[in-house]
Specification:
The protein is an alpha/beta fold. The chain contains two helices and three strands; from the N terminus they run E-H-E-H-E. The chain has a three-stranded parallel beta sheet with strand order 1-2-3. Strand 1, helix 1 and strand 2 form a beta-alpha-beta unit. The radius of gyration is 12 Å and the shape is globular.
């Protein structure tokens, strides 16, 4: 059975160590990544993990309501 995982904290110290294992064990993996002032979420993820097959990256922030994700704008990611 394939599973879908939403992973927050991938760009942090502990998350960056856990991410390779999660990618091996999960079907589809979504990473909620906070963009920086200079990089989009996807650019930030790619610069931190150049050798990891890229999971689905969603720009957001867990400190904001609905994790900063606009479900009207980003509804296609939920399908």
């Amino acid at each position: 059975m394939s599973t879908t995982t939403l992973f927050t904290g991938a760009t942090g110290a502990l998350g960056s160590l856990l991410l390779p294992q999660i990618l091996k064990q999960s079907g589809d993996t979504w990473c909620l990544v906070r963009p920086s002032t200079r990089q989009t979420a996807k650019e930030r993820f790619s610069s931190m993990f150049p050798n990891i097959r890229e999971p689905l990256v969603c720009s957001g922030n867990i400190t904001l309501p609905q994790c900063g994700v606009s479900f009207d704008r980003d509804a296609e990611m939920l399908i």
